[in-house]
Amino acid sequence: MIALDTNMIVRFLVRDHERQYKIVEKYFLENEICVQPTVLLEAEWVLRAVMNIPKAKVMAAFEGLMEMRNVEVADSQAVSRAIEWAKQGLDFADALHLATCGASESFVSFDRNFARKAARIRSEPVVVVAH
Fold first, then answer.
1. Residue 67 belongs to a domain
2. Nearest CA among 103, 96, 101 for reference residue 36
3. Residues 6+ apart with CB under 8 A from 81
């Protein structure tokens, strides 16, 4: 099994640089692939903020990646939960932080908007605004 960096995942999903796409495609065809949640976190930012790809398309691309037989996403249950929460309105980074905080009873933040959105989707753990 090999782990791939963010730039490899982005090239594979976007196919915007044909030579690099062929290289990463070969890795996907010939290997078992491990993708770390931190790589997805960075990839989401690149795809959405730098490449202007809508969040819905990014989440669909991540779901497709997770469905590939030779791809193992580390902490896949939490990542799947984060993707679902992002599709329901949370920022993907916030959703991933929340989904990976384990058995914590709450997630404390200064971000009131995050807390409102998390309450709307009934996330567990709950997001509490620090004051």
1. yes
2. 96
3. 95, 99
